[in-house]
């Protein structure tokens, strides 16, 4: 590892669970991030600054003025520009030694393999459960671990998902009809601190998995207004339609 790498990551290298070997693992890793808005821009920034070697960013939206309250990679000059491209540009100036790919399109079953097929881990930076369920199903089909993140109002949650080993998003939310009643940023608003808190929790989970292959079975929930934190195990649902597909393939 070159001398300037030691200088860039010197404080992270001093953290014993990472160290030189862990930093080298991060440098060889490829992370896909679906959505680079509030959660995604924070997640991408942490990953780039931490030295994850390759990032794949996917977002079909453009930057709007209302985004600047919580989407940390953007400023007023980015309004009207592609989120994916703007984020990639900012990240390349933060860390010019990593590889960044930007896709200005919606993710679906048809393009998932081409975009995310070679990733070691996927991160959920979306703002809706429809996109998350697509990510969940495709990640299970291709056997790619991912970290679910969601925020609204002053609260949020984070959950690591490993196909074949942990509960998936559909295990957690078996009835998709309930999604219509879920609070979201459009009907409940959002405060900026909860975005950075949940993104940090999810990013820490991602980094630990890449360094140690640690599998976390707990969902983390935090309310930033009341300062309440809880963590609980999520059991696999034997009737889950996404996990059931995987079981059928294994037979």
Task: List strands and helices in order, with pairings.
Blueprint lengths: L2 H6 L1 H5 L4 H9 L2 E5 L3 H13 L3 E5 L24 H12 L4 E5 L8 H5 L4 E4 L4 H14 L3 E7 L2 E7 L7 H4 L12 H4 L3 H21 L5 E6 L4 E6 L7 H10 L1
Parallel strand pairs: 1-2, 1-4, 2-3, 4-5
Antiparallel strand pairs: 5-6, 6-7, 7-8
Kindly give the count of domains: 1
Distance between the termini: 44 Å
Strands, count: 8
Mean pLDDT: 93
Question: Treating each run of at least 4 consecutive H or I residues as one helix, how many helices?
Answer: 11
Name given to the CATH homologous superfamily = NAD(P)-binding Rossmann-like Domain
**CATH topology assignment:** Rossmann fold
What overall geometry do the principal axes of the alpha carbons give?
globular
Largest sheet properties? 8 strands, mixed
SSE string = HHHEHEHEHEHEEHHHEEH
Structure, described:
The structure is a single chain. The protein is α/β, with parallel strands linked by helices. It has a single domain (24-250), classed as NAD(P)-binding Rossmann-like Domain (Rossmann fold, 3-Layer(aba) Sandwich). The protein has eleven helices and eight strands. It has helices at residues 3-8, 10-14, 19-27, 38-50, 83-94, 112-116, 129-142, 169-172, 185-188, 192-212, 241-250, and strands at 30-34, 54-58, 99-103, 121-124, 146-152, 155-161, 218-223, 228-233. It has an eight-stranded mixed sheet, sandwiched between helices. β2 (54-58), α5 and β3 (99-103) form a beta-alpha-beta unit. The radius of gyration is 18 Å and the shape is globular. The mean pLDDT is 93.
